[in-house]
Amino acid sequence: MPDMKSLPSPDEPAEALAAVVALRLMANKLEKKAVMEALEQGWTWAQIAEALGVTRQAAHKRHAGVIKKQTR
Amino acid sequence: MIKSYIRRIKLRILDIGTIKELCLGAEKYAHDSGEDTPGEEHFLLAAMALTDGTARKVFERISADPEEFSGAIKKQYSDALSSIGIDSSKIDIGSSDDEILAPKRVLYNSKPSAQSMMKKLVDMRRHDKEIPLLGAHVVDVIATSEQGVAARALRAMGISQETLRAAVKEEIKAYTFRA
Q: Does the pLDDT at position A7 exceed 80?
């Protein structure tokens, strides 16, 4: 975890917001990979949803493409 | 009168085809980089792939290599992460990941930056009825954005908005269209 003191200062919002966008992209990719791995390990959608802190329906809707990959 | 009307109809038909090509191209570039929906940066990549070639020529006019734009997108992500102390050298953040599938969708969807770009493009086209929609027009609209991934990637290439827009004007002026 990076030192919070190294975060861009609020007087540099452009840099801070650019970092937010990059972090979101990184988080999305990590989430997809983790869901795919969880499904391969036999996790249920209810377990995945619980781990992500979302509803089962939300997790399923967001990662519906992963099921397609699983069934190929 | 009728000739002018037919010409305008032809232009609109051409524009519809170009918009479709842009949307599908941008979506493909977004998925290739592991993103669900395209943003302005993906539309710029799609514009460079259009057969009219004007988007690429705009970059060449200012001695910039259009091929470097996708690398510049990755660079701005890595610079942004570095600014908060994350070493992104081991994370290929803006690259494709074959294991990840594109999400299922029914309707076309894009990021707000792309939606805003498309709106500006439509507004611009209302005032230009002489030539079809070109890749250079897309570059022109994206060059007006001061923030966002595309703007930061252009800055990473050392390209200023003013220089890019001046090159767009020259390219569009040099373009000849035969209806």
A: no
Q: Which of A6, A15, A62 is closest, CB to CB, to B85?
A: A6
Residue B105's pLDDT band, with cuts at 50, 70 and 90, is: low
Residue B111: pLDDT band with limits 50, 70, 90: confident
What are the domain boundaries of chain A? 31-72
Residue B10 lies in a domain: yes
Q: At B6, list the tokens.
A: 């037919």
Nearest residue in B to A68, CA atom: B101
Q: Which residues constitute the domain of residue B95? A: 2-174
Point out the residue among A15, A28, A64 whose CB comes nearest to the CB of B83.
A15
Place of tokens 């079809």: B132
Q: Phi-psi region for residue B53, left (φ > 0), alpha (ψ -120 to 50) or beta?
A: left
3-state secondary structure of B116: helix
The CB density around residue B50, as the number of other CB atoms within 10 Å, is 19
CATH code at position B120: 1.10.1780.10
- Of A2, A17, A66, nearest to B101 by CB-CB distance is A66
Tens digits of residue pLDDT in A20-40? 999 999 998 889 889 999 999
- Residue B179 in any domain: the answer is no
- Is it the case that residue A72 has pLDDT exceeding 60? no
Residue B22 pLDDT class (50, 70, 90 cuts): very high
Contact B80/A21, CB-based, under 8 Å? yes
Place of tokens 């991934």: B149
Q: How far is A39 from chain B (nearest CA, A)?
A: 13
Kindly identify which residue of chain A lies nearest to residue B31, measuring between CA atoms.
A29
* B77 CB within 8 Å of a chain A CB: yes
pTM of the model: 0.85
Cα–Cα distance, B80 to B135 (Å, whole number)? 28
